[in-house]
Amino acid sequence: MASFFVLGIFTGLIYSMVALGYTLVYGVLRLINFAHSEVLMTGAFAGYFFLHYSMTGTSFSTPFRFLLLIGAIAVSGIVGAVLAVVIERFAYRPLRRRNAPKLTYLISAIGASYFILNFVGKEFGRDPTATPQPITQNFNVTIFGGQISAFDISVLVVTLILFFITNTLVSHSKIGRSIRAVAQDSETASLMGVDVNTTIASTFAIGGFMGGVAGLFIGMSAQVSYNMGFTPALLAFTAAVLGGIGNIKGALIGGVVLGILMYVPIYWIHQPFYEPVIGFGVLVLVLLFRPTGLLGEALGRSA
Q: What's the rounded Cα separation, in Å, for the pair 35 and 208?
């Protein structure tokens, strides 16, 4: 069972990075960015191309491989952030200016999602592709009977560092104060001199960076494809709801708890591929019995 527990933790950490994008956008706009799955997918492709052209035909030492991983993280995160800002600029901002109904935002986000999905599928093919591995697969540590690989350690370190930076940024920086002000009351924040459009774009960029990095790790653990973002993004949304959507720490905790709840039962039922079934079952139960999640909302406006 320990191996399933470990798998759940480290898979949940990846979901946590994606969940942060949902949490930030919901906290500020009270909307769900349903194009976030394509941010994840685009980040995965960016990391794939970076590693493919960096590693093809060349042998690297272990320290240089870690530098390549850091470079891939930066490239995937930046591409994810840029795409998220573009989505905000063309799918959300024009609707805010016209004070459009909430349903219109949903339709616009879904339209942006399908446009990006099919554009990438047309331009880069629809067959899954394996991502080159900058991290050696020969290193494993056994803790309480569970195998922890170098890849798992990388996921843990990167996730904790990015969450620490994001939490510090939102809690103690000027842009963080702007994000919290817009989340509380965008009109009052605007009257107080806060640039609402820049603040919202920054929020999308932070969430997009995390989503792009998560896409890189998903691509490294499985394969890169044009439709790879759909299921992980929905499970990450479940993690955000479980932890308390609008709560940054809740996104981290919700992802880890969801990963454990998804994978540990597989040890007893002996049925692989039931993980998404369990994950979406958790979403239904949370919405029924505790819709504010484990930690409740923290960033968003009170109802």
A: 10
